[in-house]
Each structure stands twice: as structure tokens, then as C-alpha cells.
């Protein structure tokens, strides 16, 4: 039996494999600058603002609370952010970047921009526009199905 050629592979499989490969490469690019993908997502969300509490931040970053807490613990220990309880509810913590956290954000942003340029190398803007539209359509196609699934 002949191995399947790329054009015969299911699109979802190719997309999943590409996502894994590009995520690993992006994480490696961030690690070269002293960060990681989860750290980048947290720093980026905090720089964009509107995520005062850990729960809001977890929803924005797309991780469960305990996973976010693990990352925040390390980032706080490294002096990148501070967490402080809200005065009216001491169980809810507000998260804010320190100067060191903002500096790391800008350092990692340079790595992210260089990575994006590398990823897009040799692909013209018209093809990228079509690619973005196809990805958005695929996401919409399965997004509706995910919303219809019962919670586990």
C-alpha cells in the first residue's frame, strides 16, 4: 500500500500536525529569549489590559485556573508580576505586571515578530489572506459543533 501524499491527507490531521510543529518552534523561539508560550500568553494578556483578576486572565489565556496558578506562581517568584487580594474579597486576586514583566514582554514580542516573519517567509500577502479566511471558516465549522457538545 502506498503512503498517502499530503494532498490526500485529511485536512484536520494536517492542521493538527502543523499546529503542533509550529507551537513547538514558537515555544523554542521564546525560550531562546528567556520565556515560554504560556508565559508569553500571560504577559500579552496583561499588557493588553482588562484582565484584573486571575479568573479573567485564565479565561483570556484559555487555561484552567490551577494551570494558570502554576504559571503565575513561577512568574511572581521571578519578579515578573504581583498578585494582590481585592480589598472587598480576599479570595480574588488582582494580577499586575512589574517593570521586569513589561521588559520581558517587549523582549518576547521581538522574538514573536521574528518567528512570525520566519513562518511567513516565501508566502505572499494574498495567499496569507486566503489562508486566514480558510482558518477562520474551519474554526467556525467546528466551533458550532463544540458548543453543541454536552459538558464533560
Concise synopsis of the structure shown:
The chain has helices at 11-31, 37-48, 54-61, 65-77, 99-120, 125-148; strands spanning 81-86, 89-97. It has 152 residues and is mainly alpha-helical.
SSE topology:
Blueprint (H helix, E strand, L loop, with lengths): L10 H21 L5 H12 L5 H8 L3 H13 L3 E6 L2 E9 L1 H22 L4 H24 L4
Helix pairs in contact: 1-5, 2-5
Keywords: DNA-binding, Transcription, Transcription regulation
Protein name: MarR family winged helix-turn-helix transcriptional regulator
InterPro entries: ArsR-like_HTH (IPR011991), HTH_MarR-typ (IPR000835), WH-like_DNA-bd_sf (IPR036388), WH_DNA-bd_sf (IPR036390)
Tell me the CATH superfamily of one domain.
Winged helix-like DNA-binding domain superfamily/Winged helix DNA-binding domain
- Per DSSP, the total helix count is 6
| Helix coverage percent | 55-70%
Largest sheet, spatial ordering of strands: 1-2
Structural class: mainly alpha
Total count of strands: 2
The share of residues in extended strands comes to 5-15%
Unreliable stretches (pLDDT < 50, length at least 5) are: none
Rounded mean pLDDT is: 88
Largest sheet: 2 strands, antiparallel
Shape: globular
Give the N-terminus to C-terminus distance in angstroms: 39 Å
Amino acid at each position: 500500500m502506498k503512503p498517502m501524499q499530503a494532498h490526500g491527507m485529511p485536512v484536520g490531521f494536517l492542521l493538527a500536525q502543523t499546529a503542533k510543529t509550529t507551537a513547538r518552534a514558537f515555544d523554542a523561539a521564546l525560550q531562546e529569549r528567556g520565556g515560554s508560550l504560556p508565559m508569553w500568553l500571560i504577559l500579552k494578556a496583561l499588557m493588553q489590559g482588562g484582565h484584573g483578576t486571575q479568573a479573567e486572565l485564565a479565561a483570556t489565556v484559555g487555561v484552567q485556573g490551577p494551570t494558570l496558578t502554576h504559571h503565575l506562581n513561577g512568574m511572581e517568584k521571578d519578579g515578573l508580576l504581583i498578585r494582590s487580594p481585592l480589598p472587598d474579597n480576599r479570595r480574588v486576586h488582582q494580577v499586575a505586571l512589574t517593570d521586569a514583566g513589561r521588559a520581558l514582554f517587549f523582549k518576547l514580542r521581538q522574538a514573536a515578530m521574528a518567528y512570525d516573519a520566519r513562518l511567513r517567509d516565501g508566502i505572499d500577502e494574498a495567499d496569507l489572506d486566503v489562508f486566514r479566511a480558510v482558518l477562520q471558516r474551519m474554526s467556525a465549522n467546528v466551533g458550532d459543533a463544540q458548543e453543541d457538545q454536552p459538558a464533560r
